[in-house]
Amino acid sequence: MLDIFGLDALSEEIYRLMLTHPDKGVEGLADLVGTTEAQVRRALECLSELSLVSTSEQDLSGFRALNPETAMELLLAQQQSELTVAQMRLDATKAAAVKLVAAYSSLCPPYDDRDFERLVGPEEIGRHLAGFAALAETEVMTFAHGGAHPEEELVASRTPNVMLLERGIRMRTLYLDSLRNHQPTLHHMRWLSDRGAEVRTAASLPVRMVIVDRCQAVLPMRSADARVGAVVIRSEATVAALCALFEAKWEKATPFGSGPTVDDRGLSVQEAEVIRLLAEGLTDQAIAKRLGVSDRTARRIAAELMERLNARSRFEAGVRAVQRGWIPLEQVPDQAAPVGSDRDQ
């Protein structure tokens, strides 16, 4: 599990044994593992380099295992530092790549890839989406990602929606749970549902997306502002992956006619999603964007959950959430699973 930090299996086993058998020296650890004392000493050196153990004159092995929470925080801080350096290098590489492409493009004709097409500006995006609606033959799947839309935009979308539904096109649209509190959007969802469209809501959505007939998809070029531009994707493999993403979110989403529910953990769908996003390390701003709520609302929900978990930090909240079963272990990245959880047994 700790191999992501560069730890081999033997060193990890030694670390776990030191937590459960702090009275064992090098010889005792070697007997428990069934290896040589020399290999145990090499494992201890590796653990020391990663700050998972510290030197101790009182312990027979010469080392003492650090508390898992403290050790993980140190490892994560180290990796964050390395990530920052890597990001700086990546930014420099991107800048160099942009200059190279700019210089090369003046010498060569534009590259034409029929699997991908760029759309620039809201007018061009609107024209293409209208064309897709006119040519759709079987179904249209939509992630209505982002915050609430102005009522006039919702009303304007009804004409092409009616055309699709009257032609027998299956329409499935996923909105954010938070939009159930926005009356114009709530009214629009009811309007769609009454006319045969299938509508569900989810706590968060990864991106704004429209898929037509499972053969082409439209995604924004910038998630922060979908009006800037979009890309039409016709690549068979890419569209198939996007369809799988839609189906996975659709299966877990709440049908429009159903109200908010609380699961057996005592969490609403939105709270469960916030816990998951916190465990992934997302900021309040990123969580707010995923949920389609204000930064203030995201901070409030996160603070309330941390208080319920009696956690002082987000890392501690993730550990306690796993221990309480708030986050299913199969959804926790290996590096996030706390030592001592069921996964370690």
From TrEMBL:
Domain HTH luxR-type, residue spans: 260-325
Highest taxon of the lineage: Bacteria
Name of this protein: Helix-turn-helix transcriptional regulator
Lineage: Bacteria, Bacillati, Actinomycetota, Actinomycetes, Kitasatosporales
